[in-house]
Amino acid sequence: MKLLYCDRLRNFGDAMNPWLWERLLPGRFDADAASLFIGVGTLLSDQLPARPTKWVVGAGCGYGDAPRVDDRWRIVCVRGPLTARRLGIDASLALTDPAVLVPELWRARPRSRSGVLFMPHHMNARQADWRAIAGAAGLGYVCPEDDTQSVIRQINGAQLLVTEALHGAIVADALRVPWIAVNSSRHVLQFKWEDWCASVGLPYAPVALPALFDSRGGDLIGQHVRRAIKRTCASVGLWCHRWSPIRPVRSAPAEFARAQQILAALAAGDRATLSSDATLSEVTERWLARIERLRRDLPVQRQPARWRPAPPVVAPARH
Fold it and tell me: Measured between alpha carbons, how far is 160 from 238 in angstroms, rounded to an integer?
C-alpha cells in the first residue's frame, strides 16, 4: 500500500503524512501503488488515478472537481461535512482532520507557553519576507516549510498562533494553543478551512491581511517573463480565468506597514479561538477507534522502523 500525499513542495500539512502514519500504522506502507492510502491533505479530486483501491482516511475535497466514488473506494472517514456532501457519502463519515491525533504522538508539554507566532501559507511565504514583517510586529515566525517536528515543537510552546496555514490551526487546536486565522491571498482555500472548522463546531472568520509581493528575493527573470506574458494575453483578450492576477514587482510600503500593524494588533489575542474540550475529546476518541480498526484491517507489509516520542519542550524554538 502506497502512502499518497503531495510531496512536490515542502509544506507542513503534506509533509506531516509520513511522520504521522508511520507512527499510527507502522509497517503498513510500501511502494505498491495498486492500493493507495489517502490521509492528510486536500487530495480528493477527479485527478486521482481510477484503477487503484483507495483508502480514504481523513482527506478532504477542495481542489478540482469531486471524484466519482465507486467500489474501489474504501472511505473510513473524511475531513469534514463539506467533503462528505461533495462526495455524496453519508454524513457520519465526516470526522475531522487526522492531524487532531498529533497530541497522541507528541506527549511532551512545555512547563509554560510564551510568545505569539505567525505562520503564513507556504505559497505566500515565498512571495514576501513575512519573517521580517512578523518580527517588526513583535511576533515570532513559523516557516511552513520547516521540518514537521520543528513546526510542532514551535506551535506547542507558543501562547498564540496567528496562521494562514490550515494545519497550523489544526495542530494548535489539538495541542490547546489558541489560534487566529488570517488570509492574505487566493492561495488560501476557503472551502477546506470551512470544512475543517465545521467538523469541530467553529466558524471560519479570517482576518484579512494585504497580499504582499517582493520579487527581490525570488526568481526575478521568471516573474518578469510571466508578467509580460499575462499583460500581452490580457491586451488581446486571451486571459485565462484560472491565472492569478498580474502582481506588482513589489508591494507599496504602505501595504507592508499595514500588514505589520494588523499582526501587532492580533498579538493581543482578542480574536483567538479554540474548539471546545468536549468536542476535541469526542472527535479524538472516534479517530482512535478508527485507527484501531485499521490496525486490524491493514496487513503489516514490512518491519516498521523504531521511533521514540519527542523530548519535552520548555520553550518555543526561535528562528
Answer: 45
Residues 180 and 288 in one domain: no
- Other CB atoms within 10 A of residue 280 CB: 19
* pTM, 2 dp: 0.86
Asked if 247 and 290 sit in the same domain, the reply is no
Provide the residue range defining the domain that includes 51. Answer: 2-101+277-297
66 in Cβ contact with 45 (< 8 Å): yes
Instruction: Give CA–CA dist 78/89, Å, rounded.
Output: 10
Q: Is the dihedral of CA 132, 11, 221, 228 positive or negative?
A: negative
Under DSSP, is residue 84 helix (H, G, I), strand (E, B) or coil? helix
Mean pLDDT for each consecutive 10-residue tract of the chain (319 residues)?
86 95 95 96 95 97 94 97 98 98 90 94 90 97 96 97 98 98 89 98 96 65 52 57 56 92 97 98 98 94 58 33
